[in-house]
Each structure stands twice: as C-alpha cells, then as structure tokens.
C-alpha cells in the first residue's frame, strides 16, 4: 500500500475520535436541564417524523416500544463515525436513555446530521436492545422517511428503523455497524 493511504487512514481515525469526543455528551444527561433538553429534542423529532409521514403513527400504535435518537452526527474521511443519544420508550412511557455509536471503513467523505427511530415489535425485541449487546447495520435496514414510506415498511428481525436526513453532504459506500447502549430511567 502507498504511504499516503496510511496518512489518510490516520486522519480519518483522528476525525472519528474527535467526532465522538465532541458529540459524546454522555449517555445519561447529568442535570435536570440537560434531561429537559433531550426530552424536548425527542418530542420534536417524533413530531417531525409524524409530519413527514403520518403513516408512521401505526408503528407508534402497534409497537411494544421504541428508541428515538433526535440528532446523530455522522462524518468521515475514509474512516467514519457517528454518535447520538436519545430516549427509550416501553408501551408509550419513557423507561431510559440510549446512545448510538457507529464506526465505518470504506468510501466515506463528508458529514451529515440525521434522526433515527427504532420500533420494537414485541417485548423480547426491546429486551434485546436493552442488553447493551445490541448492534446492527442501519444502512441496510433503515427506511428514509418520506410521505407514504411507513405504509410500505415492515419489521425485520422484530425491528423497524426509520431515519430522516437533516443537513450535510456525504458520500458513503462504507461498511460498518451501529452499537447501542441503554441505561434505565432512575425514578427519584
């Protein structure tokens, strides 16, 4: 391999570390004000998903639970990464916090923000998510939300994943996966 490749790869790895460091506010908000901000962002994201495709309401109605990550930043230069945090709901009630981190390798240039909702068909599907061992490749399974998209979507392996791209420009033909962490809500 050419020496320039390793320099590029190193620059990409530095970008990923910076990305996670900047975005990584922590899994659980550390103050009531931070919790309120995350909650407001989650509510706004849910409203945006419903506005983009009213048919997504069927997933809110029939799913056992769901995770909402209202803002994920993804960026890369050959090596890429993404990070975002949000809230988890069971039967419509908030039960905890989650975060998503992603690492990719391949043709990745640029950066973008997006939002993601993962619907869990049944309790065992949500329980799997809560184990902390939950990973998947969202690029292969996520549905981009547009009017009518939810009507054509269905659960795969007990989950249905929807995303809305917000800002940015990215060329991405990479291989990678998303890893999720979960912390239950502590009632004080």
Provide a brief overview of the structure.
The protein has six helices and five strands, in the order H-H-H-E-E-H-E-H-E-H-E.
Task: Describe it.
The radius of gyration is 17 Å and the shape is globular. It has helices at 3-23, 32-52, 57-62, 123-130, 138-141, 149-152, and strands at 65-90, 93-120, 134-136, 142-144, 159-184. It contains six helices and five strands. Strands 1, 2, 3, 4 and 5 form a five-stranded mixed β-sheet that branches. Mean pLDDT is 76; it is low at 4-24 and 169-175. By secondary structure, it is of the alpha+beta class. The protein has one domain (3-184).
Helix and strand arrangement:
Layout: H1 3-23, H2 32-52, H3 57-62, E1 65-90, E2 93-120, H4 123-130, E3 134-136, H5 138-141, E4 142-144, H6 149-152, E5 159-184
Parallel strand pairs: 4-5
Antiparallel strand pairs: 1-2, 2-5, 3-5
User: Structural class of the secondary elements?
Assistant: alpha+beta
How would the global form be characterised?
globular
Oligomer description: single chain
- Number of continuous helical runs: 6
The structural domain count equals 1
Order of helices and strands: HHHEEHEHEHE
Q: Based on DSSP secondary structure assignment, what is the total number of beta strands?
A: 5
Mean pLDDT: 76
